[in-house]
Amino acid sequence: GQQLNQSPQSMFIQEGEDVSMNCTSSSIFNTWLWYKQDPGEGPVLLIALYKAGELTSNGRLTAQFGITRKDSFLNISASIPSDVGIYFCAGLNNNDMRFGAGTRLTVKP
Amino acid sequence: GAGVSQSPRYKVAKRGQDVALRCDPISGHVSLFWYQQALGQGPEFLTYFQNEAQLDKSGLPSDRFFAERPEGSVSTLKIQRTQQEDSAVYLCASSSGLVKTQYFGPGTRLLVL
Asked: Are A75 and A20 in contact (CB under 8 A)?
């Protein structure tokens, strides 16, 4: 089963609003990743974090690797309709990658 | 194409039927992973190959599941005597090495009736 606790489970926001979601784990991970999955497609990598405390941005997306290596958050600023989808956090140790259950984001125009 | 491809994209099987799912990884990627994704859940690890060697199959749910990658490129996930609980999306991912970022294919949606 899932080892990562991802929240919130779903979000309904207005276009232009900022979004924040996070992931916690009982285990330490060496790498944290955030993926987005559209219906009928596989997950697409958004951001990868390799060092504890690292803060990384990719356009309107910002993610941080928690200092304890047991958590990470993803922020999306100024949301747009195409941000709709399911966002997954993932923790990676060597070949072992564990996923959260996902945050389903709905953006109302 | 440049990405991971999977076939078929959709598969409907009768309970008890055997199925084979194919994954073509990104060219040159030595690592290949299979995941199972149930509806409303994140992907769950099934098995991992480095080149042709299956180094971890701890996630395979039963001995009805079998994966191979004989030439270190294309991989096939086979499910024998399918059961309804096998219905899920099966995702394949590849990476250029251990600890490297995994890139996912579009998945095969399996429905067992």
From this structure: yes
